[in-house]
Write a structure and sequence with these properties.
The chain has 376 residues and is α/β, with parallel strands linked by helices. It has helices at 28-34, 54-59, 67-73, 103-111, 133-152, 179-190, 203-210, 238-252, 275-280, 325-343, 357-363, 368-375, and strands at 9-13, 38-43, 63-65, 76-78, 94-97, 115-118, 160-162, 165-167, 171-175, 194-198, 214-215, 257-260, 286-289, 306-309, 312-315. The strands form three sheets. Strands 11-10-9-12-13-15-14 form a seven-stranded mixed β-sheet, covered by helices on one side. It has a six-stranded parallel β-sheet with strand order 3-2-1-4-5-6. Strands 7-8 form a two-stranded antiparallel sheet. The chain is globular and about 65 Å long. It binds nicotinamide-adenine-dinucleotide. Nicotinamide-adenine-dinucleotide binds at residues 124, 129, 132, 134-135, 138, 175-181, 198-201, 204, 231-233, 236, 244, 261-265, 270, 272.
């Protein structure tokens, strides 16, 4: 049954405090779409860095407050990044944010009886696609990785002819052709590079080729057959990884721009580029390692730093979506709107039904007591 306006749930949006984080979890356009179901309180300035001023939130029907008020008054608190210790909602309240891979955070929030709906747990099923922040943000990261890589190169990506002569197009490869890798491939193609892709999942070949890129084959079928469950890759054995690195090194020696995105859920990123391969690469080439957060696909990657080795530039950006904060926030917010609309369907409280595939997956890992509190 839908709620009357008076008992609408209070949803709060906190400003991001992590260094370099410019995104906001909900934008005014999405608040407008949800305002009949909930009241919204936004921390002053939360949307400013992403291009959404306080007055645009007020126009959408939200109230501006300070962080203390958001945490005190709201039944549900929404933010992008995992919360700091001073950003914890009160016991029995619900927090929606990233942070599902941090067991310490999970334990801390459980002890405080806060229900944490960690966005990493949104299941990758068709019904939940609109709620999948990992995909929307990976897509932006893939695009931005090519833009950042192109800026660091001292050559052009497209072929260019002038009266002075003709410049050959740059050669680019994406290692890992999931959401970010495919977007990097599409972006580099649009910019005119000669584009290649590689992935251990067999299904990726057709996706790479459908974007007009060349799929790099490894002769050894054992190392290229890494399909796991749920569309993700399976972790390879030490021996398989070593053979894969050797098979890829000859290809990498011919590339000027390398975007690496290879990840295994819950595991360190596979090492695809070791010191030997770096030594074979052309000076002036650029590697953008999108797996820096989980250890990196390149041996010298340092999170959020740029390292030069034998003239090869290795970048390890961990938060490229924040560079494009306005559109990244639009996508993030669209995902949160879809999630809130699902959880508020037919109810004036969050409908956290463990038998529902979406809320069931989000609740996985919560203690029995906090789950009961959420449903109350
Ligand atoms: P991810 O970020 O976990 O990994 C990125 C890519 O790295 C994956 O394609 C993976 O196969 C690849 N990889 C892992 N180890 C590798 C190695 N040693 N060498 C080369 N590549 C390696 O994955 P992702 O981008 O989040 O998505 C993975 C899959 O899930 C894709 O097929 C994607 O289309 C699918 N997906 C489905 C949904 C849905 O709702 N149904 C949503 C998002 C993604």
């Amino acid at each position: 049954m839908s709620s009357g306006n008076s008992d609408r749930i209070n949803i709060g949006i906190l400003a991001e405090r992590a260094a370099g984080e410019r995104r906001v979890a909900l934008i005014p356009a999405d608040i407008k779409k949800l305002i009949s179901k909930a009241k919204f309180v936004i921390e002053s300035g939360a949307g400013r860095e992403a291009g959404f001023d306080d007055n645009t939130y007020v126009e959408a029907g939200a109230r501006i407050a300070d962080s203390w008020e958001v945490l005190e008054d709201c039944d549900v608190v929404v933010k992008v990044r995992p919360p700091g210790r001073s950003e914890t909602p009160r016991a029995g309240r619900t927090l929606i944010s990233l942070g599902g891979h941090d067991p310490n955070l999970g334990e801390f929030l459980r002890k405080r009886s806060v229900i944490h709906l960690a966005l990493e747990r949104v299941p990758r099923i068709t019904r939940a696609q609109a709620m999948d922040v990992l995909s929307s943000q990976a897509s932006i990261a893939g695009y931005a990785s090519v833009i950042e890589g192109a800026r660091a190169l001292d050559i052009l990506l497209p072929m260019l002819t002038t009266a002075a002569g003709t410049i050959k197009p740059a050669r680019m490869i994406a290692l890992g052709a999931g959401v970010a890798g495919l977007q990097a491939i599409a972006t580099a193609r649009r910019l005119g590079a000669v584009v290649h892709g590689f992935d251990v999942r067999a299904a990726a070949r057709q996706q790479v080729e459908s974007l007009g890129a060349k799929f790099v084959s490894v002769d050894d079928t054992d190392i290229g057959a890494g399909e796991g469950s749920g569309g993700y890759a399976r972790e390879q054995s030490h021996d398989q990884q070593e053979r894969l690195r050797r098979a890829l090194s000859a290809h990498l020696a011919t590339m000027q721009l390398v975007i690496t995105t290879a990840q295994i859920p819950g595991r360190p990123a596979p090492l695809l580029i070791d010191h030997d391969t770096l030594g074979m690469m052309q000076p002036g080439s650029v590697i953008v390692d999108l797996a820096a957060e989980t250890g990196g696909n390149c041996a010298v990657t340092r999170p959020d730093e740029t390292v030069m080795v034998n003239g090869v530039c290795v970048m390890g950006p961990r938060n490229l979506p924040s560079l494009m904060a306005r559109d990244a926030s639009r996508f993030f917010s669209g995902n949160i709107r879809a999630l809130l609309a699902h959880l508020l369907e037919g109810s004036n409280r969050l409908n956290l039904d463990a038998s529902d595939p979406i809320s069931g997956a989000l609740l996985a890992g919560q203690s029995a007591t906090s789950t009961a509190a959420a449903a109350a």
